[in-house]
Amino acid sequence: MTDERTDMEAGGLDPDVVHSLKDLPEEFRDFPRVYQEEIRPALLAREGDRQDAVSKARKARYVGIAVAALGVVIGLIVIRQPIVAFISVIVGVGYLYWGGRDVRKVGREAKDLIVLPVAQHLGLNFTAEPGAVDTIYKHHDVGIVPSWDRASYEDHLTGQRHGVDFELFEAHLEERRTSTDSKGRTKTSWVTVFQGQCLRFDFPKTFYGRTLVTRDAGIFNRFGGGKGLQRAALEDPRFEKIFEVYTTDQVESRFLLTPDLMQKLVDLEDAFHGGRLKCAFNEGQMYITLEGGNLFEPGSMFKPFDSVDRVKELLSDFSAMFQIIDAVLAGRRRAEQERGD
To answer: Transmembrane residues, as ranges (predicted)?
Structure first.
């Protein structure tokens, strides 16, 4: 690997870029060249727009804060009219929001300039605004997302690795709730019941049983994982303190949920900046959900457009997802050898 990196530097690649991406897996070894030759030029072409947008946002910040602060002082101390203070704060916040429009616009464009070429080189398909994603109903059927009344989706990614079709998307699920006060008046509100990433891996062979993995829920573990599922033990006691496992096939779950895979699931949470990971093995699919986090974002617009960290974080996300597939495939091979298939 060191010789390859040296060859890259000798071939005209920026040593800083090579160094920044050196910790990525071997399969990403060509990305210093991809970044330098394809991604960086496109980002640098928009650097002037980023700087203009940031300058406008900073000026709007100063003006907005000044308007809000001055209005509060005048409204509450000078003329003692709270409504003046309230209006001033609204105007100041509104000006801040207006001043950041260009930054948000440039950020959305940067997302396409970074994510699309990376996805293309990995043979993946990416859609920022996919509309409805029917796979979410499968996540509900296996018990890792709750019911909802309305949903929105973004950042839909599909591809294949080692014969495994996979899909990743972000979902925001909301439930309509109605309450009645003491005077009989009803109020309807929307409550977020899930917001995060959903993954689906479609393996070539069906699983022997059904297995559900959730975060340890303390005293609520007594409710179990659902009809037909029994508590399963993990090989590593460290992960038994983190996860709860329920299955219809104790033997298969033991081969699937190795310490290696459980560590990969923890790593996935870290890479995706999410939590409350749940996953399920059902028929030929593995489903995963993580709450929180926000993938495929270009990062802060207040640092240079061509910061290589923007690409490094994206590749780290892909690597964490790929390692899940590899760990499951390895576990299935061991299970099949044990069963003599």
So the answer is: 60-77, 83-100
